[in-house]
Amino acid sequence: MLIVRNLDKLIDERKVLDHISFQADPGEFISILGGSGSGKSTLLKCLALRDTWTNGQYIHDGNEVTSANWLSRFTFKNKIVYLEEKVQLDPNQTAISYVLSGRRTTFPLWRKITFTTPEEEYMKAMDILEHVGLLDKAKQKLGQLSGGEKQRVAIAYALAKGANIIIADEPVTGLDPHSAGKLLNDIKELCSKKSVTFICTLHQTEFAEKYASRIWGMADGKVIFDISGRRLTQGEKQRIF
Predict the structure, then answer these.
(1) Domain locations in the chain?
(2) SS3 per-residue string spanning the chain
(3) Measured between alpha carbons, how far is 220 from 36 in angstroms, rounded to an integer?
(4) What pLDDT sits at residue 44?
(5) Higher model confidence: residue 193 or residue 31?
């Protein structure tokens, strides 16, 4: 469970995020909608601890993150993965080797030093690729994969690393509607089956309505509505776009 209370973010004395509070439970797929400058991307970076907070309280599974020591914050960072709008992956690396690099963060020190991988870890990585629908692409180089497939490999890496919170900035940018829908449906199923909390920004309202379990509307650095189980009204769309 992720709890945020009164998150504020100031940039050059301008309030970019204004008293944001919420609770996100395991298995939720949360989509953030809003116009340019609404604070969406800044909120994601703050949640992923890629950006500093001016004020606020951050709690994960009952543990305070904002006032935690460096070790606790490091442990939390291993539970949360941030995917930028355009995932940058080594084109010469295979999908399975990239996912295994996420598994290696859980290896004992001697295995990290010797770069040895036990067969059971290799099979766990294969299982994770299967979860994201890429088992048949395991031996392919990342440079040969489509944009949507690269996004799913990045998600597989996050799962291999042990992340239970994935934060993504526009994960379907550049994808055709069919590929985007397939990726978002895979994410929806992943949240349900693996109890992953997925928080992302989307430009397309129809994608958010179809795949997300919860929609946040942002404007002027505030979450002005938080809805689930229904489509947006015309009035709600006009408030954020």
Answers:
(1) 2-240
(2) CEEEEEEEEEECCEEEEEEEEEEECCCCEEEEEECCCCCHHHHHHHHCCCCCCCEEEEEECCEECCCCCHHHHHHHHCCEEEECCCCCCCCCCEHHHHHHHHHHHHCCHHHHHHCCCCHHHHHHHHHHHHHCCCHHHCCCEHHHCCHHHHHHHHHHHHHHCCCCEEEEECCCCCCCHHHHHHHHHHHHHHHHHHCCEEEEECCCHHHHHHHCCEEEEEECCEEEEEECCCCCCHHHHHHHC
(3) 10
(4) 96
(5) 31
**Residue 73: what pLDDT?**
78
Instruction: For residue 22, give both structure tokens.
Output: 């919420």
State the angle between helix axes of 119-131 and 95-103 in degrees (0 to 180), rounded to the nearest 10. 110
Distance CA 136, CA 152 (A): 13
Averaged over 20-32, what is the pLDDT? 96
pLDDT for res 231: 94
Q: Average of pLDDT values for 84-105?
A: 84
Q: Is the pTM of this model over 0.90?
A: no
Query: Which residue would you say has higher pLDDT here, 129 or 69?
Result: 129
Q: Give the rounded distance of the alpha carbon of 196 from its chain centre.
A: 9
Options 3.30.390.10, 3.40.50.2000, 3.40.1280.10, 3.40.50.300; CATH for 2-240 is 3.40.50.300
**pLDDT-derived band of residue 112, with 50, 70 and 90 as boundaries?**
low
Q: Greater confidence, 198 or 152?
A: 198
Residues 195, 46: Cα–Cα separation, whole Å = 22
d(CA 241, CA 118) in angstroms, rounded, equals: 51
